[in-house]
Design goal:
Chain lengths: 200, 122
């Protein structure tokens, strides 16, 4: 919930008060950086995306409607900047950023004893996310972590809504396969519940 | 029905975005493997939701870098506002000043990014 003071800062920033805008940056940059990092996958590129995001936000703050949350608005801009950035990076490096890009999956946690040493479910999940191809990762991050609508995801990534859904389901499937490689109920009910409890 | 063909449908069904077809529903009811998979998807979604409140840590230089990059943009904004207020100001001169400031701001942004990278590299 955004406080009254926060709303007032937004109003002042919309009227062109740069100090108010700077205060908003101070209060939101960690969240914006986190999303950018999750989308592009490394610190250096995330910094570029964050900078571009706030330059665009500064330019567009007058058009920001008060009925939306600032964080939601910033997330949309971040997603759009990251998408542009990944497209450019793909062209520059001639990377294959297709949906079907295969990533080497060595199932480091296949052995349950080994897995016990590997920290909680969340750290497994963060690692699994980073192993996804960027285009699949973007959709699952925006939908399942940031609760963005399919429509908004499609708009920001410049893809169709049905493409966004297909990518989401593939991404979830890959994450599940990586997190639960043994795929037998005994392992799931024992190990996974313990991991869940630790992650709480 | 093969479990493998059900898997993607479970990934879609898990957050209530879709319903399972009658055939798939019957399969899942009778298949322990698919039931286990559905439970895994539910846990996966819960864990993803929990990541929302977990920030990726970074050093403080990112904020300085960000504020540095925004400062020249703010001065361009001020130039526009001043010209708005001062109706006697020459229209063409105002545009030229703003354009110069915009170009300078762009150069500054790039320079500050490069300086940041050099700091990191050094
Ligand atoms: Zn089955």
């Amino acid at each position: 919930m955004e406080s009254e003071k926060f709303d007032q800062l937004i109003e002042e920033a919309r009227e062109g008060d740069h100090r108010a805008f700077e205060s908003l940056v101070r209060q939101t940059y960690a969240d914006t950086y986190t999303l950018a990092f999750r989308l592009v996958g490394n610190e250096e590129d995330a910094r570029d995306v964050v900078q571009e995001t706030y330059l665009r936000a500064h330019k567009g703050i007058q058009k920001f409607r008060g009925d939306a949350q600032l964080s939601t608005w910033l997330h949309r801009i971040t997603a759009n900047c990251a998408s542009t950035f990944l497209g450019r990076r793909g062209r520059d490096r001639h990377e294959q950023l297709q949906d079907e890009t295969d990533v080497v999956d060595d199932h480091p946690q296949r052995d349950p004893a080994q897995r016990a040493d590997l920290g909680d479910l969340r750290s497994h999940l963060v690692e699994a996310l980073m192993h996804l191809p960027p285009k699949l990762r973007a959709v699952v991050v925006l939908r399942d972590i940031y609760d963005m609508s399919h429509q908004s995801i499609a708009e920001q990534l410049d893809i169709t809504e049905s493409a966004a859904k297909v990518r989401l389901h593939r991404a979830r499937k890959r994450l599940r396969e990586r997190l639960y490689p043994l795929n037998d109920e005994g392992d799931l009910e024992g190990g996974a519940d313990e991991e869940d409890a630790r992650a709480m | 029905m093969q479990c493998e063909t059900v898997s993607l449908q479970l990934a879609e069904f898990v957050d209530g975005d879709s319903n399972l077809s009658l055939e798939t529903g019957r399969h899942v009811e009778a298949c322990l493997r698919c039931q286990a998979e559905l439970a895994q998807y539910r846990k996966l979604l819960r864990a993803l939701t929990m990541l929302r409140d977990q920030y990726v840590t970074t050093d403080a230089s990112i904020l300085d870098e960000l504020l540095d990059a925004l400062r020249p943009v703010a001065s361009v904004h001020r130039i526009h506002r001043l010209h708005h207020r001062n109706k006697k100001a020459a229209y063409v001169g105002g545009i030229a000043a703003a354009a110069t400031a915009t170009a300078a701001a762009g150069a500054f942004v790039i320079a500050s990014r490069l300086a940041g990278r050099q700091r990191l590299a050094g």
